[in-house]
Amino acid sequence: MRNRGWEFQGGHGEFRLKHPERSSYLYFPLVNEAGMMSAISPNLHGEITSGHNTFLMEPISVEDLHNSKASRNFWVHVEGYGAWSVSGNSAKQNSEQFTTAEENSFMEAGFLWHKLTRDHRESSLRAETINFVPVTDDKIELMKITLTNNGNDELHLTPTAAIPLYGRSADDLRDHRHVTSLLHRVYTSEHGIEVQPALSFDERGHKVNKITYSVLGADANGNAPIGFFPETEEFIGEGGALDWPETVIANVTPTISAGVSLEGYEAMGALRFETISLASGASISYVVAMVITDDRLDYTRYVQDYLSEASFDALLAQNQKYWSDKLNTVSFTSGDSEQDQWMKWVTLQPILRRLYGNSFLPYHDYGRGGRGWRDLWQDCLALMVMEPDEVRNLLFNNYAGVRIDGSNATIIGTKPGEFIADRNNIPRVWMDHGAWPLLTTLLYVHQSGDLDLLLQPQSYFRDTFIKRCKARDLAWTLEQGNKLTTAEGEIYQGTILEHILLQNIVPFFNVGEHGNIKLEGADWNDGLDLAPNRGESVAFTAFYGSNLLELSKLLMQLKERTGQETIEIAEEMVVLFDSMAGSISYDSISAKQQLLDQYYNNVALAVSGRKAKLNISDVAGDLKNKALWIMEHLRENEWISSKEGYEWFNGYYNDDAERVEGDYPTGVRMTLTGQVFTIMGGIATDDQVGKITSAVDRYLKDERIGYRLNSSFGGIQQNLGRAFGFAFGHKENGAMFSHMTVMYANALYKRGFVKEGYEVLDSIYRLSVDFDKSRMYPGVPEYINEKGRGMYTYLTGSASWILLTQLTEMYGVKGYYGDLYLEPKLLKSQFDQQGIASVETLFADRKLNIVYRNPQLADYGQYHVKSVIVNGAAVSVKNEGNGVLLHRSVLEQLPAEGNAELEVILGS
């Protein structure tokens, strides 16, 4: 039985939660493409920012949500009753929580707006507060407070908006907090308060600052505030606090009006409105705007565009339509309407990750903003489905981050294709980074049929680090630029295909003592970071092996579909295709390492710029030989068993070159990662897949928190990684880490283990919506901790993988070199009572509504695709494996506007 604190309202993903303040750590994202990034909690706490150095409200972590008193607040002094916070964020209201005096409250939210409703018990005053970030070109958050007198008596109200204006870099939170307040220049205008610090004290240096932070307000009739409290210390009063400010509690008359300038104090966006009389049944609204601008505010425009109830309502409607249209790009309809609505929130998450990176929400991985290399490629998986127009450019630009030694940049700029030399001067390589670009690019090629992308020239990244960060070029300087050059100083470019080949072939030779690829700084699991010398990642050796096989197939398709017989690569790379340049024994670790050292030395400082022309069939054969060697090597050497008789693949070796998994005195050690890529890449045979699932169920599956990332290793592992310093059941040490769990499900679906794959995906859904434990809004968290709480909500790459798995595997809608391939893997329970399940998605620049009709309600394995009807007319399809192939030209003949319906008839 699923236990939800929140409930969906209607059929479009909106949800409602009663008494949201009773749950800690809750927050909701509000964002736009202009760069405004907000987080809002049930008591309107959170943060507002446009980047690491530009916080309007104070930067926070989840602990601040209940510890800090700073929040978006709107106070009402009710004559005869005293001060009341519409958000519940007052000392009095907080003290009454969990008692009979607790107020009635509930929140509602949708795409992407947040509404809080709260009742003042004594006076029967109701407050509805709506917050959202408009989809305009401005960095602005809007808030509308509607006060309604639900009592019998007239009320006399004095409203005060109160938003603390932090107005500087997150770095100043502890470092120079007071000193940077001395930089504040505060200006009052007719409708509000602006803060423009004179200088910025942050990593960019002590520079003249132009960024301005503002709080503006007006009532529904356009009336401006009657006065201001622009300094925090004046607003709270001596001995006061943000949740019990003297100016509000004592209903102090403001002495500051428009046209005043102040400087040198912590700023407060406190706007006092005129005292009003509110009759029984009457309502009044106030609009408050929180704004970040590149210079002083264009006051007239902002007042005109935003500070009226009509503008607020119109912008809110525009906002709702914008996000609804974007999310309707992909939607699922099954026998479980609530799971379909939950998927809407999962579908939103990859877009949020593109906009926020991994920062700027109360849980964050990278506090300074931006995304990592892995994120660039994994987020593109979902964007290909959600926002396909820009994906080609994103992919092309991302490849500029590859180094000629097969590694890549680690600092990602804010613009597409912008890569920066590591400012922290840390020479570190994540060994899995080279594996992800091919997976993402293959999805693009299959969706689009665009093989031409592979032949586009692109530059390489260059910085001081060479030889896969094992050495430095001490003569290199930042002024030389971040692009690889030839010996003559010309920028070198190779095809995208060359970049892909390089990132997958170099690791093949970069092996440790057991013949697996070296772990280096870590792999996908960043917590495995203490085995850089002798550690090996068996898991990602499997991934690279399957990549080499996929590359071999891709090259043969390139030859077949384009007629191209040869490819060009940098002449220095030829040595890596050893079967053509003088074959070595793949069993010889030293031979592999020596060959790689030879290559490193040849490209350490520059390349010649000369190209070698290779026969495509020969290259494909070389890649296939490498792939088959890896597959055989892993099957022979890394298949292990426990004393209990369970069998699976070992995933790692530690820095003492010891096998990590198997029987140990403290218990059986097992990792999920080691199973995912051996299954997904075809290394595990069908028989082995069945044995792996049994072992996973025995050692990793926990009914309380799902599929653990690893079993307990029994203490810290200084020869493997920091992850084991975390408490077991948390983050990378044995939590249900959604990303790897979803990839496990994806791998099972790929191999035809559909019931097992569905069970894994369904467990994530059920854990996430069990509000009593997960304490999170709809969506998928990064991980589920030992208590079942959802952690690091919204910003997780697992959302992309859930969307991709559900669309391409569960609903079986995928591309094959531009054609549409349909192979549904839906269980009987996923169809509605009429035997129908459907998905709307984009393909071939057409919006398709693909409707599966299963009139016999057959289960998976008992049906196949019998026919396909497009807009009422049967079309010819080609049987391919367990599915059918629909030629792209059939879809391109359909009208570009509107939806096209594909009826897919299933039968035995």
TrEMBL record:
Gene Ontology molecular function:
glycosyltransferase activity
In terms of domain of life, where is this protein from? Bacteria
- Specify the Glycosyl hydrolase 94 catalytic domain's residue ranges: 624-806
Annotated GO biological process: carbohydrate metabolic process
Question: Sorted alphabetically, which keywords does the UniProt record give?
Answer: Glycosyltransferase, Transferase
Which InterPro entries does the entry link to? 6-hairpin_glycosidase_sf, 6hp_glycosidase-like_sf, GH65_N, GH94_catalytic, GH94_Enzymes, Glyco_hydrolase_94_b-supersand
Which residues does the UniProt record annotate as the domain Glycosyl hydrolase 94 supersandwich?
104-307
State a single Pfam family of this protein: GH94_b-supersand
Keyword Transport attributed: no
Please give the name of this protein: Glycosyltransferase family 36
